Amino acid sequence: MPLIQFMEALGNNFIVVDSVTQNFSFSKKSISKFIDKDDFLEFDQVLVIEPPEKEIADFSVKIFNQDGSEAENCVNGMRCVARYLADREISINEDVKLLIGTNLVSVKRNKNDFVVENIFSLSPQEIGLNNNEQIFEVEFENKKISCFTVSIGNPHAVIFNDEFDVDVKKFGTFLQESTFFINGINVGFIQIKNSNEINLRVFERGVGETQACGSGACAAAVACAIQKKLSSELKINFHQGQVFTKVDLDESKVLLQGSAEYRKQDVLLNF
Q: Residue 119 region, left (φ>0) first, then alpha (ψ -120 to 50), else beta?
């Protein structure tokens, strides 16, 4: 039976499944078995590492939400994957390239942290908008709320909640269930502290609010740089810690640096 890893990045919890060195085939049907096991730690997503589907990548990664749906990207999760691959010497590359569907990300180790490089897009088609407005207003509880949307390989809507003060769960659910998006949306809620620092909460597709969200931090950094002209380098605070981002608007790139830790190692998967 295969061994799995319980890992976390700022309270964002993952199960990491190695299908490269272990002969194990994982499918979304396995998710319900993970949820039902009493001896398992809580998790937000399952990360399945597989041999590369294309030559441009070192490994492929599938990301499963608790509801069985697949996510197109998870920046926090990719830091965990990179740490596992480095610690087990499955990858000896300084810069490991991970393919999630069609989305290619690269991860580098920086002392005790990992830096993930992402490409962002403001294209309504890549975001999965049903209209052609990348920035648009919605009416919610008698308020007109401006939504900034961006793709970090997965779709995000960002609002500056210090301006609107809406309930995270209520508005997140409202936007996810709306007809604005073809494949749903992750929703970020920003509170600006100063030109170099923000607080962030994220309501994710298929999960709900999580303790942290790396792609959500990247989306927030892009929104802050474009809409509010904040610094291209931000400290972003979550419930249990912070990450650091750097936006390059000319290259449509955003870097995120943060930690990746083990919660429990080499747990025998038996079901």
A: beta
> Would you say residue 207 has pLDDT above 60?
yes
Backbone angles phi, psi at 218, to 5 degrees: -65, -45
Is residue 224 flagged as an active site residue?
A: no
- What does the pLDDT average to over 203-212? 91
Which residue from 148, 222, 221 is spatially nearest to 186, judged by alpha carbons? 148
If residue 115 lies in a helix (H) or strand (E), which one and from where to where?
A: strand 113-119
H helical segments located in 62-135 = 75-87, 124-127
Catalytic residue status for 213? yes
141 pLDDT more than 90:
yes
Measure the CA–CA gap between 219 and 252, rounded to whole angstroms.
12
Instruction: Name all domains of the chain by residue range, CATH numbers in brackets.
Output: 3-109+260-268 (3.10.310.10), 124-258 (3.10.310.10)
Identify which of 62, 66, 43 has the alpha carbon closest to the alpha carbon of residue 51. 62
> Which 3 state secondary structure label does DSSP give 145?
strand
Smallest CA-to-CA distance from 239 within 171, 168, 184, 172 is with 168
Q: Residues 80, 213, 218, 224: which is the catalytic one? A: 213
**Residue closest to 137 by CA, chosen among 145, 128, 126:** 145
Options 74, 80, 218, 224, the catalytic residue: 74
CB 166 within 8 A of CB 141: yes
**What tokens does 170 get?**
């209520």
The tens digit of pLDDT for each residue in 222-253 reads 999 999 999 999 999 999 899 999 999 999 99
Question: What's the average model confidence in pLDDT over 176-185?
Answer: 95
Name 27's Cβ contacts closer than 8 Å, sequence gap at least 6: none
Asked if residue 39 has pLDDT above 60, the reply is no
